[in-house]
Design goal:
Layout (H helix, E strand, L loop, with lengths): L6 E11 L5 E11 L3 E5 L6 H9 L6 E5 L5 E4 L11 H5 L1 H6 L4 H13 L15 H13 L5 E5 L7 H18 L2 E6 L2 H7 L2 E6 L4 E7 L8 H4 L2 H18 L4
Parallel strand pairs: 3-7, 3-8, 5-6, 6-7
Antiparallel strand pairs: 1-2, 1-4, 8-9
Helix pairs in contact: 4-5, 7-9
């Protein structure tokens, strides 16, 4: 088991150039410690999602060094990517089925994961019967069912209405604290990144690299009082200013 605070993700001078010659990342360098909640913040097209896929091993870096935990990791995509023909429980159990471990302990883990995201009563339902927020909860349960050390989230709430997004932000922080996992969260929302994160990496436009690193030392749990506080507004102002400066940086 990884010790709290030990570095479990390390990128050094990572570059990514696609076959068409587009340089998505160049010189991307950052560390993430065990148990941290870190957000990658930047405009669309700055390479946030590309960086996350490289950390996940879903894409290969063209240059640089990438170190990640050898154990399991969970990935939550922008779209819930659920199998429409399968029940909620079957969707969440997919990681176990891919491992050939569809047994009593795995079924118990599925039940527990669904209970944690508030969908214990919907195990037999199908994705078409769920709201957008509920489908995203299923996706999060599927990512957490194996209790990964590292959870990667690629703008999972971007398509949801603001009320649902706020609710899922709250629930995500509760899950993070309960499971003691490490989270790297991709977003283009200053407000979301400040509410969720311990640390925000502001990325410059393509080719993507870290322009600024901003700590958010506000205590947890964070709730509506934090969202409406002067402290939250001040952090949002700092991050917004850094993002505005990053947008002015050339290649």
């Amino acid at each position: 088991m990884t010790a709290q605070g030990e570095t479990i993700v390390r990128l050094r001078d990572v570059g990514k150039t696609f076959d068409n010659g587009t340089a998505a990342l160049a010189g991307l360098t950052f560390d993430v410690a065990a148990g941290e909640f870190v957000s990658l913040l930047g405009p669309s097209g700055c390479g946030k999602s590309t960086a996350l896929r490289i950390v996940a091993g879903l894409s290969e870096a063209s240059a640089g060094v990438v170190e990640r935990p050898s154990g399991s990791l969970g990935f939550v995509f922008q779209d819930p990517t659920l199998m429409p023909w399968a029940s909620v429980a079957a969707n969440v159990s997919l990681p176990f089925k891919l491992r050939g471990a569809d047994n009593a302990p795995s079924r118990a883990a599925v039940t527990q994961a669904l209970t944690r995201v508030g969908l214990g009563e919907f195990a037999a339902a199908y994705p078409r019967q769920l709201s957008g927020g509920m489908r995203m909860r299923v996706s999060i349960a599927r990512a957490l069912v194996t209790e990964p050390a590292l959870l990667l989230m690629d703008e999972p709430f971007a398509a949801l209405d603001e009320i649902t997004r706020f609710k899922l932000n709250n629930e995500l922080l509760t899950l993070w604290q309960e499971q003691c996992c490490t989270v790297i969260f991709v977003t283009h929302s200053v407000f979301e990144s400040v509410f969720l994160s311990q640390r925000i990496l502001v990325m410059a436009p393509r080719p993507g690299r870290v322009f600024a690193e901003i700590d958010i030392p506000a205590s947890y749990p964070r709730d509506e009082h934090f969202r409406t506080s002067a402290e939250y507004a001040d952090y949002c102002r700092q991050v917004s200013e850094a993002l505005a400066q990053a947008m002015k940086v050339g290649p």
